[in-house]
């Protein structure tokens, strides 16, 4: 069976959305991965099909019910696949976790809406909470799409040889160096000389220096981690 994403959501019609296009969309059509949006409302038990309710303790918004999410997970788990809730409270998503998820059988994603999900189902099911960044979306669906896009491009056969994952500077803990294409002179701006020199060693060294400079300037956190790694294993 191909890598499978089951997405539990109140808005199944949002999928595949952007995942139906470009690299992920072509891979989906080829069957390199499978996407199964699951309507959480189907697992509602009362006659109003309610999936959420007011928070105990008061306050604004609605909380998604534990029993509904539990029933959906009971019916729709995938053998050995992690079960993940997308929430701004989660651990930040990293390329490392993305690579681990892509190497497994797939994922079951729960998209939260409203104020969140009843804590008891998160604990009872041992759900992993993941955030895609320090900002708040109106729901987990776009976050689920981000996570899936990042995983799918790592699946075997999805990326062409031109786009080598291992050579990406990010996989080495650095931000990407700048890119240039034709025309060589545009609005008075020339492409850096070294890139048209034909000297591949010098080009590689220039790119490495630029990736390091940009990482140092923009992301002191990544830079510190990169330096720590370089000191532990100087040949890497
Ligand atoms: N749901 C709402 N905001 C989110 C975020 N930043 N990451 C993951 N899921 C979310």
UniProtKB/TrEMBL annotation:
Output a single Gene Ontology CC term carried by this record.
cytosol
Q: Which EC number(s) does UniProt give?
A: 2.1.1.228
Which CDD domains does the UniProt record give? TrmD-like
Q: Where does S-adenosyl-L-methionine bind?
A: 112, 132-137
Q: What positions does the domain tRNA methyltransferase TRMD/TRM10-type occupy? A: 6-224
In alphabetical order, the GO MF annotations are:
tRNA (guanine(37)-N1)-methyltransferase activity
- Report any one BP term from Gene Ontology: tRNA N1-guanine methylation
Catalytic activity entry = guanosine(37) in tRNA + S-adenosyl-L-methionine = N(1)-methylguanosine(37) in tRNA + S-adenosyl-L-homocysteine + H(+)
- Residue stretches in coiled coil: none
Q: Which NCBIfam families does the entry mention?
A: PRK00026.1, trmD
**What does the similarity note say?**
Belongs to the RNA methyltransferase TrmD family.
Main function: Specifically methylates guanosine-37 in various tRNAs.
Protein name stated in the entry: tRNA (guanine-N(1)-)-methyltransferase
């Amino acid at each position: 069976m191909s890598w499978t994403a089951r997405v539990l959501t109140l808005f199944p019609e949002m999928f595949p959305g952007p995942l139906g296009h470009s690299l992920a969309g072509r891979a989906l059509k080829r069957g390199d991965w499978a996407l199964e949006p699951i309507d959480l409302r189907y697992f509602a038990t009362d006659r109003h099909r309610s999936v959420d309710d007011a928070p105990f303790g008061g306050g604004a918004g609605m909380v998604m019910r534990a029993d509904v999410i539990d029933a959906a997970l009971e019916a729709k788990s995938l053998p050995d696949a992690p079960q993940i809730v997308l929430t701004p409270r989660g651990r930040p998503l990293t390329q490392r976790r993305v690579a681990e998820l892509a190497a497994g059988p797939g994922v079951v994603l729960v998209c939260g809406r409203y104020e969140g999900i009843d804590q008891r189902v998160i604990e009872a099911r041992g759900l992993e909470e993941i955030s895609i960044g320090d900002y708040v979306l109106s729901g987990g669906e776009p976050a689920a799409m981000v996570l899936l896009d990042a995983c799918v491009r790592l699946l075997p056969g999805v990326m062409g040889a031109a786009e080598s994952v291992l050579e990406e500077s990010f996989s080495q803990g650095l931000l990407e160096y700048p890119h240039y294409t034709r025309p060589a002179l545009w609005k008075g701006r020339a492409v850096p000389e070294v890139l048209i020199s034909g000297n591949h060693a010098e080009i590689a060294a220039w790119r490495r220096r630029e990736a390091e400079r940009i990482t140092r300037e923009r992301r002191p956190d990544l830079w510190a981690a990169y330096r720590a790694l370089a000191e532990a294993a100087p040949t890497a």
